[in-house]
Specification:
The chain has four helices and no strands. It has 69 residues and is mainly α. The radius of gyration is 16 Å and the shape is flat.
Length: 69
């Protein structure tokens, strides 16, 4: 909340959840996500529903905001 200068704590929940479910777990020898779905969790713009040609050279969030598709 401090980093993003916000009081909307609920907006950060998805990021905290993603960090927890993709973290390696010593007892099960993989992440909870991988244990549940059988594959490692995919993150990032490359794994989005946006066409690859629109995201191939994207380097900033501002670039994402400018996409019109």
């Amino acid at each position: 909340m401090d980093t993003n200068n916000t009081t909307k704590w609920s907006e950060g929940l998805r990021f905290v959840q993603a960090m927890k479910i993709r973290a390696y777990h010593e007892r099960i020898k993989c992440s909870p996500y991988e244990a549940m779905f059988g594959v490692p969790m995919k993150l990032g713009i490359a794994n989005s529903v946006l066409p690859r040609n629109l995201t191939i050279n994207m380097t900033t969030e501002e670039g994402l905001e400018k996409i019109k598709y």
